[in-house]
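Dear colleagues,

As part of the handover before I leave the project, I'm documenting each prediction I ran so the next person doesn't have to rerun anything. This entry is a single chain, and its sequence is reproduced below.
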Amino acid sequence: MKRRFIILISLVLGLSLSAGSVQAALKAATVTKIAQQLKKQHFTGTVLIVRNGHTVLQRSYGYANFAKLQRNSAASTYQLASVQKVFTAVLFMQLVETGKVQLNTPLSQYYPQIKHSNQITLRQMLDMNSGLFTTTEPQKMLSDRQLIKFAVKYVQVKQIGQHNYEPVNYLLLTGIIEQITGQSYQHLVQKRLLQPLKLHHTGFVLDGFKQETHAALAYQTKITFLPYLFRVHTTRVAVKRKLGTGNMYSTASELFRLEQAIQQGRLLKPASIATLFNATDGSYRGGLCNYRHFLLVMVLKMVTSLI
């Protein structure tokens, strides 16, 4: 079944590039071509490209709410899906910086009941190389503690050390963060990330997404020439169980401001940034695929919206 996704792209060009090379990389003609290709592909959402702190391209396409004829705009809020893992990774590295946890600590120190947890490090979990996976999810509303307990009970392990993208890694890291701090994940995100950066249109879906004036809904394409005929819905249970892995929302500009704050060392020390995002070949590190010159490309597939 073909689906029409609401997609947000935030492309951040790192400060390590020289002005000349950046300008060569993003000439006006190139920006125009990008816009043309997005339109050709029936892109729906918001695109933000920033160069040396200046917006090169910011355009929105399609409808946020077709029933109200409300188009996507720079103010549109989108569910962040898996990019939320960056928030979780930053919180974790802040604890590493203060000596409250180490990257080479075995998972068994926190969840010894997980099979082979003594062979898995927290670093491997950050990089999705732990071998952890799960094939079942809770079907009712659970608290943070209950969600973690459920994951610990049903998580499985195979091929430790090989890359396998599994959200359960970050769910368990969230549990570890809560264990160490004695505070809820949501409180920590608000206190350590959103409030310092004044991100007023970034938050948790179950708390504020429906109240956002420019909240973007998701649609499913069953009939190509009627792209907004079918809404995509999900339940509160499905949103809640994405603890630490995919139950937040933001705008393109606020997501950029978070990534910019990371690059500028306002949330983590330079050494921590280098450690967390220590790849240049597109490998998964710290919630993102990392490329040369700290080029972060985030493509968020917004396939869910609350009933």
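The longest helix spans residues 168-181. The radius of gyration is 20 Å.

All the best with the project,
I.
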